[in-house]
Amino acid sequence: MAYLLSNLFLFGSGLLLFFAPVCAICPERCDCQHAQHILCANRGLRAVPKAPQVEHAEDVRVLSLAGNFIHNISAFDFMRYGDLMRLNLQFNQIRSIHPESFKKLSKLEELFLGNNLISTIQPGTLQSLKKLTILYSNNNEINECIPKSFTHLNSLVKLRLDGNSIEVLKESVFEGLPNLMFLHLESNHLRRIDRNAFLRLSKLQFLNLSDNKQTELQDVFMFSDLKSLKTLLIAGNQIRHVGNHVFQSLKKLSKLSLSHNKISKLGNEAFKGLGRVREFMIDRNELTEIPAGLLDPLERIEHLDFSDNHISLVDQGAFGHLSHLKILKLKNNRLMNLSGSIFASNGGLFHVELNGNNWTCDCRMEKLKSWMTHAHSQGKLLTVFVRCLHPPVLAGKYLDYVSNLQLKNMSGFCESEPLSQPMESRGAVVETPVFKEEREKREKHDEVEVQGDQGVQGPGTTLKRKKKRKLASSRPKPTARNTGNGSLSDLFTTMAMFLEGHNYSTFALTPQEQFNLPLQDQSKYEDSKTAGIADACQFNRLSILNVSVEDITSITATVRWSTTPDTGLAHGKELHFRVLFDRFGHAFRFPRYVYTDGSDRAVTLQELRPESTYITCVESVVDGTLCKVAPRDHCTGFVTLLPSVTTEVNLQLITVAALAANALLLLLVGGVWLGRVLKRRIRSRKSSAHAHVRHMYSTRHPFRSTVATTCVSSEFSGYQTGRQLAEEGDLIQFPGDRFFDNNPTRRDDDGMMIRYSD
């Protein structure tokens, strides 16, 4: 009983010692649940509460006074908080801070003064804060940074001055911050930054100058001391011109933002020295072109944003040296066309934004369309959208769904067909190579038909020949005065062909092939030329032929097909192909599809399983519509090959080795477990069994090992007893809690991790 009473007395005294300091130092209206934290946030306080006159007030580590109505900070408000490490005074109405307010806070590490009405920080106010690492003074009314305000803050890592009214950064204003790494100056009124404003900030990694009023970037020495800078944000200013070599000292810069300015001119070497930049944003400016060589210094660029500018010209080699480029944004500009080989060296490109431009879909876009089609067939660049704005016939259509034939027909100008001579006068149709070729084909066709009159003639042969001659005579005669490759003449030729109701795709057969067809097929061919195929079902039935599978491997296979020569579609119809493939004979079907352009006749299937049976079918997509009837006549099956013998042997060896290792591990674990079980049983038998009668009266000495004799004292070497040994539950257990240090003054925040990232 006495022992129990003594334990209770000690426990009660420990509780009193633990709670006594908390109750003694906790000011009125505050929360002091933690022994070292005083929380007075959002309590309607109009002044800093005074701490009671007790010795334990110096043990406070965190003091929060945010969200109150405090107006001034006197010299005596924090005199008794000598060990304070974090002080939060945000969201008050503080206008003035006495120069000696923080004189006793030599251990302070974090000071938050943001969202107040502070207009200036007097020199010497922060002088005693030798260990200060974070200082927030954002969203105040500071209009000038006094250089001596930040002296002796050698440990400061992060400084926030954003949201103030600072207009000028004078020389050496941050000279006393040698270890500063994060500096926020956004949302001020900065108009001028002196040349040595960032002097001795050699460890600075993050600098934000966005949303200010700077008008130019031309001083090559402005960032010369920022050798460790990794992120530079200068968005939302009024910069119109960026000079040469401005960023040449930023050798470690990885992110640069010049967004939302008024930049219309860039120096030829404006980006020199930015070899490590991975993300560059210059969107929402007034750039009109991207010349060759401008982006060459950005050797490691991955994300490039030129959106919302006035760009109408991009040089063919503008992105030639950007081999690491992954994301490119050119949306909402004034581009009309792009060269097809402009992205030839950007093999890692997977996201391109080209929408919102003035795309003119003509023959200049053929190579770009081919590049997009090839990328889509490999499962890349699925988000590229090029929507035609001109000509009116194709307005609103996406380039993916415009055929190459339409691009040729709508050509107004082609880089490969320069305008050599002026257009002829009104009323004359200019003969182009395309029109000339068609005319020669038709004349040759007429000659073949005349010769055919001497042979076998069908019932409607004479009528068709007369009809063709009548159509030929009704066409306007081409003049021989302009035989150049003019683009405007091509436009007139195209218009004449459309007025005739024909399409280039209807002239797939040569005249000799047309003549060799049977009479029934000739009539069908003539009908398809005049009317054209209008739906996918008709195209599947009449045009798709010879579906086969070649180049079969363990994981790939190539599907090939062909089409009949009379593949003419009705006017305005678009053609694509869809290849379906699925594993054959499985209960759960998982069909997959590959879409190709109408000019393709082969597709490579990938990610197949070895030694599996597949079925593949080819069907057409006419004007975006599929046939509801499955194309059973255009399907074929194939079986993928087995993997190579070397791979199979290696896999077998690895499997055998893994099984052997697992078996050995199981045997080892089983042996250990069995040994422990046997050992426990032997011990239990020895402890529970009494001495045998024969052994009690035996004159022979019992067997005793040398190890036992060395471990047992000689006084007990001949003593034996039959008493059962004590179990673990019989041992006396003493409470160990009272041996722990219950001192309430021990520090719990000594290992606190400070985060500086934004």
Automatic annotation (TrEMBL):
Residues 463-472 have a biased composition (Basic residues). Residues 543-644 form the Fibronectin type-III domain. Residues 416-487 are annotated as: Disordered. The keyword Electron transport does not apply. Residues 434-448 have a biased composition (Basic and acidic residues). Keywords: Leucine-rich repeat, Membrane, Repeat, Signal, Transmembrane, Transmembrane helix. SMART domains: LRR_SD22 (SM00365), LRR_TYP (SM00369), LRRNT (SM00013). PROSITE patterns: FN3 (PS50853), LRR (PS51450). The chain crosses the membrane at residues 653-675. Pfam families: LRR_8. InterPro entries: Dev_Immune_Receptor, FN3_dom, FN3_sf, Leu-rich_rpt, Leu-rich_rpt_typical-subtyp, LRR_dom_sf, LRRNT. This is TLR4 interactor with leucine rich repeats. It comes from Danio rerio (Zebrafish).
